[in-house]
Queue: 2 jobs
Job 1
Amino acid sequence: MSEDLARPKPKRPLAARLRRWSTLLFLLPHFVLFVGFLVLPVLFGLGLSLFRWEMLSPTPPAPVGLENYAEAMRDEYFWRALRATLYFAVLAVPSTLAVALGIAVCLSSLPRWHGFFRAAFLLPTMMSVSVVGILWRWFFTNDFGLFNAWLGRFGIAIPWISDPAWAMPSIVLMTLWWTAGSSMLVLLAGLQQIPESYYEAASLDGAGAWAKFRHITLPLLRPVLLFVVVTGLIGAFQVFGQTFMVTRGGPELSTRVLVQYIYETAFNHYRMGYGAAMSWLLFLLIAVFAALQFRLGKSQR
């Protein structure tokens, strides 16, 4: 026993040590960018939220503790923007999931032209939000927009973005067209991982299409559905480009979401500390909803 303890441990081969260091070197650029452009700005924003810093004021930044967070709790416009964000999330996430799942199921059952339709549904996601916003703003225009020009044949005219009751559903419709393709692609990949033998066994037992979808597709697709819902929810809470490009937050602030209010507070009114505090409140809200979704997904397994 003493001889074994006294015996020196063999050194790692040179090739193994080089392989380990090469792995670290390959990870180093990503780690530097991650820390420099994500971790440090997040920490800086957290510190900034504890200061009163108005960029155009001659008064230097002063620590105020949690006063910025308390102001947000009293701010009527903060709560109004939060309600608009929640309204968008409630409309956009379920509708995107339903449409993407329906398209994925249809594409998975196509015998031919599978690649063509997949590319067609994925094409809108390759456009930038500015291009999509300009395009759909023309679609929604009351007087000469594409939608009302077609509906006018039936004597129908819809105030798409000029009526507060229609403005947010119109933004959701545009977002659905723009983003459903990416969710469809993830769901389609999940559907292709389900063994065909399960459906063959269900057919032998006399199961119909709905029974197969309910008892085979949905249970086996649950992890992918959870991923799509969580990522969709995070994206919905961070919505900004669609409302900013199409409605600028109107009419009557009905589509001014929380990110747009944070942007206007920090970069139009130059209240950097208060804007950082609202950003952290939004981050905490997203984290809570994502944690609830993961908890719900685990409990249903």
Job 2
Amino acid sequence: MTSKHFAVVAMAAVLGVLPGSAQNASDLLQKGLHLQEAAGDVDGAIVFFRQVVNSASATNKPLAAQAQYQLVLCMLQKGDRAAAEKELAALENNFPSMPDLIEKAKKLIPGSAALLAAPWGDGEYAQLNIKRDGAATGEYLYYSVDPWTATVNDQEAKYDWNSQFLPALVLHWELKTRSSRHSINLTVDRDTLRPVEWTRVRDHYVSRPNYATDDALGDPLVTPFNGPATDAEVTVFLMRRLPLAVGFKTTLPVSSNTPGPVQMELAVTGMESVQTPAGKFNCYKVQFASIGQTFWIGAEGARPLVKFQSGGVEAELVKTWGPENPLAAMQAMVEKAGATLGFGVRQPGGVVTGSIRFHDTNWWMTFKMRKIHTSAGEIAEGLQRRLKERIDERHLNPTYDLKLRPESLQTKAVGGQQVLSALLDYRTGPLTAKEDTPVQDETLYVYWIQSGEFLVEFQDDRQRDEIPTQRWRMEPVLGAIRIP
């Protein structure tokens, strides 16, 4: 065997395509995907994808078109935009019957620096679970986009706001650590993502970030997120609309332990395939080098935030929800169980609050329903954590502090769903020595239902001697409710 012939056979063996081997195009595509996504060998993957294009173009166009699309991705991963545009042209010319794939590829190669169209619909909710040094913590990041009109009631919507206030979005960011909760809401223009301005009568208003936290002492677990992840200038949402590409750089106004926003550079350093509980995503790797934060933004579809990393802390996408109205789901549930939805209000962050009325009575219960992802093995612990959070709440007047009645605690499975209920006693009384408000014994009855995708909390607050009868009437109805 000549040395030249030996070299050819050796290379063929490395690529897994020895002469006469009976590999089909599907196998070749999978090998290419493995090299591209798992091994990080882009050049090796290109060899396989070209073989698929050459061998399957006449016999299996969808497979060949997929390989051609992967070639576009490979060139972008190499940072060669010109080559990516050439592969895109080949996709358009050779596979015109694959418009969806062509459109996906076009979105990977933006034509200008202008913001791309918003990738979310009229409502989107996303949850990323947090790990610290590789270990799950039960903490999470939560993002949502709601149309402004979905988060106000009819009376507010009919108030004399100027019409320019209506085409707006409410952006919500939330961080839940083991010991604190932080959130930011901001109302922005749909197109520009800039804070909304509106006029009422003769006064001019500009929306401001609405901050909320229960952290009075400075939770150190929040420190890694002091940057774009918590930025009031909606940087995370803005990144999803930037014309990202390998080598792309820009500066954004970012609040990071500063009195006001400062311009901070971001750079797209590569493309990577990222596997998360929510699925596998081709992502742009976006870095803020000055603060040591890295974001992986999906390159296709809704372009979600897939992963975040800062030092030993990372968050990865576990669930996204679409724009379906949770209020409609709640109404259907309570009516099927034999009650009536009294009122309901959608709030940012996938939350619905309101009340239900029991038929043939004047009794009401309030509820709070939220889209939240919890794995089956974590639901029981999650319910106990909800109870602890309620008991740990403290008030200015300590007589209002809740105390668990231990014998009332019940954990059970109802209709395949886990339920926790409890009676929490407290006393009402005067806030100052000058008030003559009588001291009364009160009880809060709380009933939680949790599935893998929703958490519902029902509660009723009454004088202590009224609770037994109320509970006797309520529990059969609550027990008939099945959440999605």
